[in-house]
Input
Amino acid sequence: MDLSFTPEQQRYRRTLRQWLAANLPEHPEEQDTARPGWLEAAKAWQRKLLEAGYLAVAWPRQYGGQGLAPIYQVIVNEEMAQAGAPRLAGEEGLLTLGPTLLACGSEEQKRRYIPGIISAETIWTQGYSEPQAGSDLASLTTRAELAGDHFIVNGRKLWASHAQIADRMFALVRTDPNRPKHQGISYLLIDMRAPGVTVRPLVQIDGKRDFSEVTFRDVRVDKEDLVGGLNNGWKVANSTLANERGNMGLNSAPLMAFAQLVQTARNIKRQNRALIENPYFRHRIAQLQIELEALRLHSYRQLTNSIRGRTAGVDSMVTKLVGSQLAYELASAAMEMFGDYAMAERDEHDIHLRGQWAQHLMTSIAFQIAGGTSQIQKNIIAQRGLRMPRER
Output
């Protein structure tokens, strides 16, 4: 596998780097979902990227993308991370639903929904987990009954990311309770403003409300918003999960976190010496960089297989498992290195942390649950990838 970049790709990287230097928001660290005005600022940043041609770069042009090879999206992700760019308003749609619609959606669904995903005009949330269907997603009980030209949806979803600001939800619902549990599921696109939808934000340990419980009572959903065919939702859902899990190796979050870790280790001093010069911490940073590079190269291999039409197998699960563990290791190392600074909610002595590493640590624990728990991922990798017998 050739991991080098072509001269054209290197020019693209340099141009993007220059554009980011000239256009990055002045205080990207303040664009936090809990801050007032975050959504408007995040939408504006996403539209600015779109206008410059640096959004959905590998998506087809007829749906609003740039029509470039997937490697260009990798370059964008890496440069965004290095620049410390803020997160996008429409991440859920860009990272998961958009690729799912491109793979499984009808032509009408692609033309209706993908432009809004790219422009952040439509904010999406995911409706998978339920109170009794988390790790065992196929046990979901939210029902959708076909009545003429629409479905009637009743049930409850849990841990829906940013549901309180979302316009629509892509959800798994049970459409045939008499079939085996993996076969009676369908994939619906639901209007969050429809009568009968109730959103209750959940307060997290860090005080934020990034997740919500969503209840459906006789909610009407048009048949045209069924993706992939009736009772075929499990196949569509696996496409979404593969995108969600596989993105962990190529998205900007771990790269950005590591860059912040190194920069802060250069700035903070103990006994008149920067932390990065401490042998113990230098070893920890080096080990983290090795693990991050291994994850990146694994993701490159996964991308290469995708380009060549090979099935992903358990590769995306390996990416998710390693990526979520690495996020925890990064945050744990930072908490140890920075001590009281890591907990401070305001800047101290020109050290701009604002409690972000304490936040990263708590969030990293959730990463080991979201998208499939680490324990479940290990079981699937062992059984499907290593052909080990099922645990008894």
